[in-house]
Amino acid sequence: MIGCIKTRLRRFLGDETGSAVLPFALWTPLIVGIALSTIEVGALTIRTTQLERSLDETVRTIRLNTDVAYTHEQLKTMICEGTSLLVGCEDTLRLEMVSLDMRDWVDPASRPDCVDTTFQQVTPQRAFSQGIAHEMMLLRACYMYTAFSPASYLANALPSDDQGYTAIIATAAFVHEPSSGGF
């Protein structure tokens, strides 16, 4: 009886059929997770680059058109028109523009206001100041987006709100040039 059990146990342990299934089952989730994270990093990089480029172009327009006082909505529209991949930009972009006093420095808030996607209600701006000639201004844009693949390792590692939106923040500083009244 014991000999029969030993023989069957040796045959079972020596059998190599199906031996490729175990490594495949163990490695597949890791490889798929890495592939999804790679796609997520690419999408995040493209979104960040587009937001930063559009913000820089908008700031350049502000600096060149010294006689124009742009409103919050005009700047938001200019930034959103300068991007092609920021889905729902008008709804999930929030701007903050504050004056920076170089002589009496006060740190701006460390984190800009972002759109609250939980309620999708309009909340007042923390700060949006037009500024005057020779004044240093800080313009921050916060764009909220949903992850390309919520199952990826990167999407799970990024901070997000209750609705699953993640923030991309772009910052630009500029000096209001005086109007070009007559050289």
TrEMBL record:
The keyword Transmembrane helix applies. Keywords: Membrane, Transmembrane, Transmembrane helix. It comes from the Bacteria. The chain crosses the membrane at residues 20-46. This is Flp pilus assembly protein TadG. It comes from Salipiger pallidus. The lineage of its organism: Bacteria, Pseudomonadati, Pseudomonadota, Alphaproteobacteria, Rhodobacterales.
